């Protein structure tokens, strides 16, 4: 292994979000985690294991530690590595053999990418979020539209987004077929990074910012492809089918396949509706869900939890709807608890879990039962993605919250809102572990622990 | 890696677009720590359906998969390639592949050949009207032959060369160690390193418990 000092390991995909202090019940998962821990120890790789305050989904852990910075090349054996592009890093998912190649050589042979500019002009309407922007983009260009491209998101609506919201957009670049998506770093980026454990300090900080400011496309840059969206046209979006490109505004009806001209798309829509158990032409608003999942590397950040809590506070959960709230990282969980969000979730009747990928992917105990329908803030609605036979509607955190209250796919517009709730701004102060319990004052209390503490589980 | 030049085997028509890697192999199988033995996991949900193509005798021994556009989308799991190979597939043909899947295929000696959609339709017609038809995939000439048709396919030059020679990427890259070291020496000192590790103060994480 060439560079352990540029490598990080976390436990997220197959870990439980309950009873994390007990041995992992699933034998195969336990063996996989034990193997990871043993390998990390053997090769001196930093690992954040279950129970560690820095454990969580890698696409939250990298940014919150300040390890994800503009201008870096970031790879990980997970396709949602595109998340880190929100910082102006070139970040993309790779397969196992490529991971092996990076560990051995710290390089990758790659063909050059093509470039696509996606400009989102204007201001987002109230009640819409960056999740609606990216779902609309995928519906527009399709799940293959970005193949071979790196996407650059730009325009006023993008510039106005917080880092959390930018991460949501870049995260789902892969669902449009693009390996990577990026946003030019700006003051929002620098404010997020400043003071984080691995951010540069003092003169180094100044040198870094000076360099980072150069990492933007020239005003007259030419792209291989361009897409333009008007933010003002956007509404809360929801998927109706079995790939993330099969999405519509929530105000629409379930599509009628017979009306689809393209034969391949018509067949795909028929198949999707059959799997999803949906009748053509039914208003999406009438679709009843069994489970609401709020979490994942797409929407499990503090800003997402804050906006959900704002909607749920003092309201009643729809009967028979199961609501899971799963923070993306242990630090996000601590931060939410410090702000009292956990009490709001619990009062509402939601389950408040430990950090991990949870119900995003059916690889840990959090799964849908066959035929069960979810409104999910995650990123994929593939057949069986959240559990064999499960039916997934991808939504924003705000739509998830409104759906948890009404029991059918809903947006804030469907709620009887009290006048004193500000529903137009959801990005609070910049997130995070800074300010979490155990942290004192506003200067970052960074503790240099030297080599990581490695907990090696029993060998299976 | 095993060399690949020409392969002949039973063609399997998979008339579906957007076959994502969760369909090729669901996440539940990713918890294993081995890189082989995934043949049963391939298309595991669809294989419960008796009408699924691989459940028909004529196609059961297939080794050339002819699929709809946007094959291999979604998760980066290389297990999708392993499952196809473990089942016996040597080639997948489609008009469009997801980038990560195509890359993973090249690493594992599975040919992901890009064929024009109208040629895919021709191949589907042959394979469906004459189940069990053998397809010959010639990587040297970059052609696909089935029954009375021969159509071209595309694989990038670098991947083709590696497959033809059976070359291992890591070995090739390590021939450039000096250049890698020279490049690493130019890295600004303020750029982040994961070690030594820096953290906010450690806090005990309370374990969530089942609510019922």
From TrEMBL, chain A:
Pfam families: Aconitase. It is an enzyme of class 4 (lyase). Its EC number is 4.2.1.33. It catalyses: (2R,3S)-3-isopropylmalate = (2S)-2-isopropylmalate. InterPro entries: 3-IsopropMal_deHydase_lsu, Acnase/IPM_dHydase_lsu_aba_1/3, Acoase/IPM_deHydtase_lsu_aba, Aconitase_4Fe-4S_BS, Aconitase_4Fe-4S_dom, IPM_dehydratase_rel_enz, IPMI_cat. Residues 1-407 form the Aconitase/3-isopropylmalate dehydratase large subunit alpha/beta/alpha domain. The keyword Iron applies. Keywords: 4Fe-4S, Amino-acid biosynthesis, Branched-chain amino acid biosynthesis, Iron, Iron-sulfur, Leucine biosynthesis, Lyase, Metal-binding. Pathway: Amino-acid biosynthesis; L-leucine biosynthesis; L-leucine from 3-methyl-2-oxobutanoate: step 2/4. Belongs to the aconitase/IPM isomerase family. Catalyzes the isomerization between 2-isopropylmalate and 3-isopropylmalate, via the formation of 2-isopropylmaleate. This is 3-isopropylmalate dehydratase. It comes from Luteimicrobium album. The gene is leuC.
From TrEMBL, chain B:
The keyword Transport does not apply. InterPro entries: 3-IsopropMal_deHydase_ssu (IPR004431), Aconitase/3IPM_dehydase_swvl (IPR015928), AconitaseA/IPMdHydase_ssu_swvl (IPR000573), IPMI_Swivel (IPR033940), LeuD (IPR050075). It catalyses: (2R,3S)-3-isopropylmalate = (2S)-2-isopropylmalate. Its EC number is 4.2.1.33. Catalyzes the isomerization between 2-isopropylmalate and 3-isopropylmalate, via the formation of 2-isopropylmaleate. NCBIfam families: leuD (TIGR00171), PRK01641.1 (NF002458). This is 3-isopropylmalate dehydratase small subunit. The lineage of its organism: Bacteria, Bacillati, Actinomycetota, Actinomycetes, Micrococcales.
């Amino acid at each position: 292994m060439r560079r352990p000092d540029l490598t990080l390991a976390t436990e997220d995909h197959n870990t439980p979000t309950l009873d994390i202090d007990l041995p992992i019940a699933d034998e195969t998962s336990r063996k996989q985690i034990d193997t990871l821990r043993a390998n990390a120890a053997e090769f001196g790789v930093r690992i954040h294991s279950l129970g560690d305050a820095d454990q969580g989904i890698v696409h939250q852990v990298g940014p919150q530690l300040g390890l994800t910075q503009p201008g870096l090349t970031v790879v990980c054996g997970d396709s949602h590595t595109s998340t880190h592009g929100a910082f102006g890093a070139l970040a993309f998912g790779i397969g196992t053999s490529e991971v092996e190649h990076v560990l051995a050589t710290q390089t990758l042979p790659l063909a050059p990418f093509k470039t696509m500019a996606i400009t989102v002009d204007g201001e987002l309407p109230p009640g819409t979020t960056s999740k609606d922007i990216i779902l609309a983009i995928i519906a527009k260009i399709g799940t293959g539209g970005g193949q071979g491209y790196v996407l650059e998101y730009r325009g006023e609506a993008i510039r106005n987004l917080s880092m959390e919201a930018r991460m949501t957009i870049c995260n789902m670049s892969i669902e449009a077929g693009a390996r990577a998506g990026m946003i030019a770093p700006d003051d929002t980026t620098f404010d997020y990074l400043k003071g984080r454990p691995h951010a540069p300090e003092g003169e180094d900080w100044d040198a870094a910012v000076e360099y980072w400011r150069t990492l933007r496309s020239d005003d007259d840059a030419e792209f291989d492809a361009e897409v333009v969206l008007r933010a003002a046209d956007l509404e809360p979006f929801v998927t109706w089918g079995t790939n993330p490109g099969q999405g519509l505004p929530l105000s629409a009806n379930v599509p009628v396949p017979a009306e689809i001209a393209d034969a391949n798309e018509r067949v795909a829509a028929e198949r999707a509706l059959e799997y999803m158990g949906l009748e053509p032409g039914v208003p999406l608003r009438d679709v009843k869900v069994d489970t609401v999942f709020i979490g994942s590397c797409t929407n499990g950040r503090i800003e997402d939890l804050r906006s959900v809590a704002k909607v749920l506070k003092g309201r009643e959960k729809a009967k028979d709807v199961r609501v899971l709230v799963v923070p993306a990282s242990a630090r996000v969980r601590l931060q939410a608890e410090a702000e009292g969000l956990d009490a709001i979730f619990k009062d509402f009747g939601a389950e408040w879990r430990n950090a991990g990928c949870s119900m995003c992917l059916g690889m840990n105990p959090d799964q849908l039962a066959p035929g069960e329908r979810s409104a999910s803030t995650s990123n994929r609605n593939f057949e069986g993605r959240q559990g064999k036979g499960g039916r997934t509607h991808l939504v924003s955190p705000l739509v998830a919250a409104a759906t948890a209250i009404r029991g059918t796919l809903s947006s804030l517009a469907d709620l009887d809102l009290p006048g004193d709730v500000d529903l137009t701004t959801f990005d609070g102060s910049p997130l995070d572990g800074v300010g979490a319990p155990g942290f004192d004052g506003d200067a970052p209390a960074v503790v240099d622990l030297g080599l990581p503490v490695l907990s090696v589980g029993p060998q299976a | 890696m095993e060399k690949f030049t020409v392969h002949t085997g039973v063609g399997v028509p998979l008339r579906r677009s957007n076959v994502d890697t969760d369909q090729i192999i669901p996440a539940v199988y990713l918890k294993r720590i081995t890189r082989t033995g995934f043949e049963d996991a391939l298309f595991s949900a669809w294989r419960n359906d008796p009408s699924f193509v691989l459940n028909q005798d004529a196609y059961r021994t297939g080794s050339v998969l002819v699929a709809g556009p946007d094959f291999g989308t979604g998760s980066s799991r290389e297990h999708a390639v392993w499952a196809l190979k473990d089942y016996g597939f040597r080639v997948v043909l489609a008009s469009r592949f997801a980038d990560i899947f195509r890359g993973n295929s090249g690493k594992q000696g599975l040919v992901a050949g890009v064929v024009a959609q109208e040629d895919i339709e021709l191949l589907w017609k042959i394979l469906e009207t004459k189940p069990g038809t053998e397809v010959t995939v010639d990587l040297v000439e970059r052609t696909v032959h089935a029954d009375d048709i021969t159509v071209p396919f595309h694989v990038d030059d670098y991947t083709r060369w590696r497959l033809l020679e059976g070359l291992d990427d890591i070995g090739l890259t390590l021939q450039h160690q000096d250049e890698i070291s020279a490049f690493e020496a130019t890295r600004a000192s303020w750029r982040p390193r994961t070690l030594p590790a820096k953290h906010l103060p450690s806090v005990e994480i309370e374990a969530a418990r089942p609510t019922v």
